[in-house]
Design a protein that fits this description.
mainly beta, 23-stranded mixed sheet
Amino acid sequence: MKMPLQRRLILGLVAIVAGGSIAVTAGFAIHLRSESHRLSVEAELTDFFHLPCEVGQILGSTFSSRRFENVVIHLPDRRDQVFTCTNATWHEDAVDGRYVNRLEMHGGSLMLGSEHWERGDYRTVLESGLGHDFAELNLSRVDIADFLVVFRQAGFSLQCAGVEGVVDLQAGEHGVARLRAYRLNNAAVEEGVSIAARFDIRNGLNVTDVALDLPTVPLASIGLDAMLGTASPKGRFSGEVRYLRPASEEPPEVRVSGKLTDVQLSELTQRVPFGPFEGQASVDVDEARISNSLVTHLRGGGSIRNLSLSAFAGMLNIEKLSGKASLSVEPVQIALGQIHRLRMEGRVDGVMLDEFLGVIARGNATGRLTIRVHNFDIEENAIKAADIEVVAVPPPGRPGTIDRGLILSAAQQFLDFTWPESLPQSILPEKLEYVQFGARLLIRDNQLRILGTHGPSGDVILTIRVFGQDFGVVKQRPGAIDLTPAINAILERVRTYDPHRVRELIRR
């Protein structure tokens, strides 16, 4: 039987890699075994791919199949290897009066991106080398075993070892790859990582969607180090990672969904406005999108432990802010600087009283605050509802004090406060001892009401002690405070934090 595609390349190099984009296919069929023919095949491969190619040996396996050994495809100027295969066998079978071809590849590697790649190499490989019509090949499937697939681009790094599976090309216009890998970025994955990809084979090879389905693996093995701005992040992840390469000039995008356990916030928030934030988190991620090394969208929920408030001082425009928070957050939906939905509850401990009051006034106070967040609900950048309880605790073993001027300044700004006539200021020391200090903050549609927590009528916010007698000097007042200007100012500071990334994304 005479094989119909003599003396020319019969392409089929389909390779798929996840998390990144992937893919490239190879197949060869020639029936001559001479050295001159081997050199001729190398020349044909080089011409077809527009890349330097080598073929170690061509062997006849059966009457209708050929085996190619030690196949290598290089980048221009042989800077790096794009593809290697120890054994590639081309099978040609007659089915219903026509030839149906399949390719088996065992032992090899596919490299898409490394330190030796130059600008434009990725496009050269996918467009110049693969800009062909594959329909003429009648290639129905490619079987892959024991492959190493490496992809590095746009801050995303992926290395899958022990890759095996099938690339199905029978659909005609589209191909589907179903692969499995047992090592991911040098981490052993006993259950295996499922890799799926869909690509267009009508005019060359256009892979736009590759997905990894991951069991519980170390977060460091996913390859997001450069995107997150940290090396070897701690914690574990289970779920799906998808790499999308749009047809337009938009940058590639990574989408993540799944569960993050025991992660360090400082490692995940290197590029977040006013970050990084210190603390730990366990997060259920419905969807997170990462583009241009920035998390642009986030939907999900979870818990945050020991969140340090120090990073928020700049957002509030104060010198420093102590304390740590533990919060339950669900749901959260944030996109390009817009908070579409955020609901949380929890507790904040260790905030210094003078730092808290320093948001609105200057002065000294001793003691710490405990803040209980019963509910905090934001929709479309507005606080729809909130119920927050604030209680001051004096320093251990001694009374708490507060500057007289600080009381006056804070109370007048927030509560339309006037000093009681029964307690002349002239007889008071500059520092006053407080007995109780607490408030209930209720917010509806950005309107804040500040309520008292103690006293005979439950309407007193601050009780001080003067000459052994207690006075409720600050009480709740009717009416509400509009928080809209303050919220808009904070959001504007967040949006403009990094003019090269955040502002550009928001304008889109």
